[in-house]
Amino acid sequence: MQTTERTTPATVKLLIGGKLIDSTTSQWRDIINPATQQVLARVPFATQAEVDAAIDAASEAFKTWRKTPIGARARVFLKYQQLIRDHLQELAALLTAEQGKTLADAEGDVFRGLEVVEHAAGIGNLQLGELANNVAGGVDTYTLLQPLGVCAGITPFNFPAMIPLWMFPMAIATGNTFVLKPSEQDPMVTMRLAELAMQAGVPAGVLNVVHGGADVVNRLCDHPAIKAVSFVGSTQVGTHVYNRATQNGKRAQCMMGAKNHAIVMPDANRQHTLNNLVGAAFGAAGQRCMALSAVILVGEAQSWLPELIERSKTLQLNAGTEAGADLGPVVSCAALERIEGLIAAGVAEGATLALDGRHPTVTGFERGNFIAPTIFSNVTPAMRIYREEIFGPVLCVLNAATLDEAIALINANPNGNGTAIFTRSGAAARHFQEEIDVGQVGINVPIPVPVPIFSFSGSRASKLGDLGPYGKQVVQFYTQTKTVTQRWFDEDEVGAVNTTITLK
């Protein structure tokens, strides 16, 4: 574990049964500001007894929370969304300190989660069943969408506000209780969001937070009281979580790795397209599962490469707190080392390093985990920089002679999180959206993450599980459908014996 010199730092608490408690663990990790290497706090790796206590608290709270009227649940989230708005700048500053994003990007992180909280406040219209009247003589059939019980969420470092807010608000709004395990790299903003949820009226035990690594993850996947597990993170861990949870009879949804492509057609709006490519590739230092990490220039659009490089050079690299910063540091020294190793591999495999962002000078933050925008051209699908998710500000540029060639290249990639096309041609856009085998499609939109009234719909190797987070799909994920068939008789009605299975 990474350590640096420090005075006694604060310790991150566990939230169990409505109380913020100190862990009794002997295993801790430093939370480090990636721009300065300052130790901000220490986070505990919870003991199994503490994880079990959180699950027990959630199990007990479920007995009453599941019976809470749907309007009362909605009002909690109406208050919660206002509290998040009131504390937006505080949350963004905390996020920037521990994760490294620019303040503007951190506010966006919180805001995209806030949109899901607003969606949860409309649960009265979302958790509706169906009714068919008089399906047979005097018989009605209807469905109830009832909560599952205790659910768990495991979230990554790159969106420590947005992704927890994707999970627990919708789970709780549908009548479940929740145990959340945020990333051990940057859990402080998540804990502040949990505190605000309690302030909004989430009852004790309905939301619990534990911290840790593989042992905690495995316990959430194994514990018999957990009914569903939601995960966002790497493909390796997500595959493990999905297999372990489902083998234990739980529902699981796992949003995992990606290699997102954009096709640039020669007729695209040049300035609009270049600006979008640069922002989507390098924003958040490329640490987004929906980051644009591969661009395919079609035909004459290949001549745009020099201008793409020059525009990328204009981005300002600095600590996220500094005015004018377009991207900040990557989250850790280990992340920086991995990114630099993949860049070196790209050079060794014969890609052209058209823009080298390694070892930049950031005055005043010389110890930060910085890497500037980096562009490879002449990339082929066989190269590691194309096959692996770099998760840094590195853009791979490929060439194609035709739209169909570009589509075939994308469809050959195992991942299916997001893709985009830039064109002025409606015919090309329609052909693209019909033929591309990727779950989320942008047309002149580089990062096609849907608003919460629609579902996040990554596909193929980027997703395990049938139902995605938020939108209509997540209501199905967090509820079980109970179908009721009923018939009522008048007091003096005498029915005949019926030995068949039909209703008459």
Automatic annotation (TrEMBL):
Belongs to the aldehyde dehydrogenase family. This is methylmalonate-semialdehyde dehydrogenase (CoA acylating). GO terms for molecular function: methylmalonate-semialdehyde dehydrogenase (acylating, NAD) activity. Its EC number is 1.2.1.27. The keyword Membrane does not apply. The keyword Ligase does not apply. Keywords: NAD, Oxidoreductase. GO terms for biological process: L-valine catabolic process; thymine catabolic process. It comes from the Bacteria. The gene is mmsA. Residues 24-484 form the Aldehyde dehydrogenase domain. It comes from Pseudomonas turukhanskensis.
